[in-house]
Amino acid sequence: MYNHLQQREKCREKRKLRVRKALRGTDQKPRLCVVKSNFHIYAQLINDEKGVTVASYSSMHKEFDQKIKGKSKESARVIGKKIAELAQANHVTQMVMDRGRNKYHGLIAELVSSVRESGISI
Known about the structure:
Elements: H1 3-20, E1 31-36, E2 41-47, E3 52-58, H2 73-89, E4 96-98, H3 107-117
Parallel strand pairs: 1-4
Antiparallel strand pairs: 1-2, 2-3
Helix pairs in contact: 2-3
């Protein structure tokens, strides 16, 4: 009965590993990891060489505009702009995009386009 759920989870894990196997974040070019949950969006810059998170921002953050709903294109744009500001504060001008198991469209595309508009190359 639960075999289809196990199979779906296995496929998701394989997809995530397939995307991430070629991506490594460095000091000069950290990995921009975007995660979507049912209600929120999370973005973080990760330096894989040191194993640290350089910056992070999400729709659950205290300073996030509460008028915007948690998981929408508007919130993705705001999160993208804020993560770009945090990156520039840490002297980062380039990033590597890590979409995880998600397709590159909708919310993730909006977030990345707002990061690019802020002057960071991905």
